[in-house]
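Study the following:
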Amino acid sequence: ATFHAPHVLILDEPTNHLDMDSRESLIMAINDYEGAVILIAHDRHIIETCADQLWLVDQGGVHAFAGDMDEYAEFVLSKRRRGSVPEPVAAPPEKKQPKPVPRGPNRQVLDVEAQIARLQDKMRVLDGALGDPSIYTEEPRKAADFAKLRTRLAGDLEGLELRWLALHDETENA
């Protein structure tokens, strides 16, 4: 898409598997890039340091958003208060009949899926902490430790996903 021009980079969650130094190098590279960058990210730090224009994907359309990240957060919260965005609601506990415990590859798939879910939960917590810019100024050592842990967990997750794919293929071909 960018071979003959225009100079456009499309980056979707580019910081997901990066340590702190790599994240900062990426931010500097994006800011030095002379072309256009379309950045899709949940990482508030990279958005605040790189983006000069925000676009809102909402109600089936894409529109320029005139405010900054704080105003965006307020926009989302006000929509939730008005009922435009449903509050996350915990499902009522269901009374389930105990299911038979699968054996063989099916059981292994379920075990790997549970491990993946646990890792994703841990990574969400770390992402929340790393998404707060104050951690970098108030507790830089903690931020670095969190980033290293997240990088390790991302590698573990990748290994588990590969294992899941292999088990899934075994199950389908059995």
The first helix runs from residue 20 to 32. The radius of gyration is 21 Å.
